[in-house]
Write a structure and sequence with these properties.
The complex is a heterodimer of chains A (140) and B (134). Chain A has 140 residues and is of the alpha/beta class. Chain A has 4 helices and 6 strands, in the order H-H-E-E-E-E-H-E-H-E. Chain A has a domain of 74 residues: Nucleotidyltransferase, domain 5 (2-Layer Sandwich), CATH 3.30.420.270. A 5-stranded mixed beta sheet of chain A has the order 4-3-2-5-6, covered by helices on one side. In chain A, strand 3 and strand 4 form a beta hairpin. In chain A, helix 3 packs across helix 4. The longest helix of chain A is centred in the N-terminal third of the chain and has 17 residues. Chain A starts with a helix and ends with a strand. Chain B has a 5-stranded mixed beta sheet, covered by helices on one side. Chain B has a two-stranded parallel sheet with strand order 1-8. Classes of the chains: A alpha/beta (140), B alpha/beta (134). The interface between A and B is large, with 46 and 54 residues.
Chain lengths: 140, 134
Amino acid sequence: MYWFSRKNKPQQKQSRLIEFDTTPIADLSFNLLIFFIVTASFIIRQGVFLSLPSLSAGTVKVEPSQVIEIYPQDNGFIADGKALDRKALLQYLTVRKSQTKEAVSIIYMKPTIKYERLVDTLSAIRESGLSRISLKYNER
Amino acid sequence: MVQSPFLKKLRSFSLGASAADMAMLLLVFFMATTSTEPPKGVTVELPTAVTQGAEQDSIYISISKEGALYFDGKDSSIDDIKDQLAIRQNEKDRIVSITADKDLPYSVVANVINILRQYDFLNVVFISQPREEQ
């Protein structure tokens, strides 16, 4: 009887604490972290913004005195009937801005003019503080 | 060594869990905040301008010196770009980044601008390299 009871005696449940080893996760995370820091590109793209007019937008009436016409050329600009370099254009635009309330700059771009001239003109206009810009395709 | 009843109650602990938490948090932070490189498509010589930071979440159109077009890094024709813009009509508020070679004739860029206007993508940024103060 003794051996029977001994053999069939239910075993005591051992309270085993199951532990989750987090060390590999920490290692993996730190490795990924270092990988991201090393490979991530911190290059912020830069550019000149322009809001295009909608095709459905109506016309805006502007006084002739408010209009500043700029004709970018491959080696400079023509504004107010004069050939100007960048510095002179910037000076001219700054003066016009101070003289005219809500001046509108119109850029007349010829199809053969280099694209960099457009960006340079936009940049000069922005530098002068003018905000109203119109872009025209000048086929002549 | 005989342990006091108080010490017996204390469980051993490791710093592994908190290190993992911290690493994961930093990882998520870096993944969320770092800017991803935009699709290039083609390498171009950028014009110079006084620039502003352009948004990362843009639609990218690149134009090579030869006039080849790339939409979001993929070689595309004018018709492909029209199709893409027609499909993405719900993304009209996104900025379109135009990366064009500085020596490109304006007529090519004007063509792209006209298409953007047709499809009502009106926010454009001409990607440039920052002008050094003179």
